[in-house]
Amino acid sequence: MNSKQISEYSGGSLGPETSEQQVRAVRQRALLRQGGKCLLTFTLNIPESNKCSPLAKKGIEEGIREIEIALDPRVILKQKRYETAAGYEADLLLDMPASEVKRRMVCLEDRHPIGDLFHLEVFENNGELCTRKKLGLPQRKRLPCSLPASDCTGNHTYASETSRRETACLLAGYFQKKWANQIAACATRALLYEVGTTPKPGLVDRNNSGSHIDMDIFTFFDSSAALTPWFQAFAELGLQWCDCPPHTVFLQARYIGERAERAMFAATGGVNTHKGLIFSLGLLCTAAGMLCGRGGTRDSETLTALCGQLAKGALDDFSELPQKGGLSHGERIYQTHRITGARGEAAAAFPSVRHYGLPALKKALRENFSINDAAVITLMTLIANVQDTNMIARSDIQTQEQVQREIKALLDTLDREHLNAQIARLDQAFIEKHLSPGGCADLLTITLMLHFWEECS
To answer: Are 114 and 62 in contact (CB under 8 A)?
Structure first.
């Protein structure tokens, strides 16, 4: 709404020299005349040069979300948002006493991580400002400009370059932490959902430890908890290095991964619960951070494609095998069968997840299977279609291919009503043969991570 429209709407008269403050005041009076008990106005206490930046827009959006959380949605009669030369603004007409609204906004200003930047004013329905002093509340003690709150307005001109930098850093740091926490939460949630999915043939679940004698579901809980801060570290790396070449970021991620492995082994008493997933989920968290940092598309296809770029360097490991001692199961299988395992999956942008895992999970959820049963079906689909290096290491490639044929036949006749019983019988067969599709379990975790990422994007 421009000054001419405001003038016409309010029945007032605004001359050509009308300031932004005058325009705002007329706009607010016009809104108050439409009813309600009070008017809440929201701008940011930030330097003029920062007011129209992308970070400022995110700050306003964050503040509005927090305001909506602090208020009962039923009391919000009207909400108007504006993008002006003076920055981003919002007005909310409320059916709540001004004193109660002011008390809630004071909590938001004083307790939110970027509340120092929130400029929240509450007007009575007669246009009078409801202040902290009027309610006997403590005055604001600090603002980014280091001036007393009473001397600061949404249009205050900041001359200090230091203040501009501090404001930008505060906003950027807040959103980086928020995004990193969100990404890490998706990764940890995927770990917990995978181990909780029951039944799973030959794998640790809520029923038993499958073909494993050195771990149980609580070992996985301990490992998942220990890895959460490292998933956050991967995400923060991606956010901070979002514009760097992928191979450079990969080297940094590998260093974090080595430290995450040590944390896992310390938490599990030396048991390898998630070594492969530290690599795969670490790449996913790093790539997710990079996408958030770039402000670009946040879908699974874009995310897995960026993982592929990051993981290209991992394939170089295979060229070093002739000189390397103490090979892992996956490395020995590569030497024998040229199956690249987790490294190859990541470098190819997780084709097994994109072609089998995600489609199977989404189809099962659309058909109203529970998340547990949808994950069981997804795991079975992956086992039926993917070469699992863990299965091969515990038997041979012929056994793995025979298992795939049997599971494809089972999927063709899978009965919703007897799903768990059918898989439970398969679980016993796997345990007797000491088989464990650990590679496909990892792919299920990656599938779940991408599903959760899409949900929160």
So the answer is: yes
Q: Which of 223, 201, 222 is nearest to 212 (CA)?
A: 201
Res 383 pLDDT > 80: yes
Q: Is the separation of the CB atoms in 441 and 379 below 8 Å? A: yes
- Give the amino acid at 413: T
Q: What average pLDDT does range 310-319 have in this prediction?
A: 75
Find, among 202, 200, 220, 201, the residue nearest to 211 by Cα. 202
Q: Per-residue pLDDT tens for 14-53?
A: 444 457 778 888 888 899 999 899 999 999 988 877 788 8
Q: What's the burial of 243, exposed, middle or buried (CB within 10 Å: 0-12/13-18/19+)?
A: exposed
Higher pLDDT, 339 or 174: 174
Q: Distance of alpha carbon 370 from its chain centroid, rounded?
A: 23
- 41 in helix, strand or coil? strand
- First-to-last alpha carbon distance for the chain, in angstroms, is 31
Residue 268's pLDDT is what? Answer: 98
pLDDT of residue 148: 45
Strands 87-94, 76-84: pairing is antiparallel
What is the phi-psi region of residue 404: left when phi exceeds 0, alpha when psi lies from -120 to 50, beta otherwise?
Answer: alpha
* Cis omega (within 30 of 0) for bond into 54: no
> Widest CA span of the chain, in angstroms?
88
φ/ψ (deg, to 5) at 119: -110, 100
175, two tokens? 């959103």
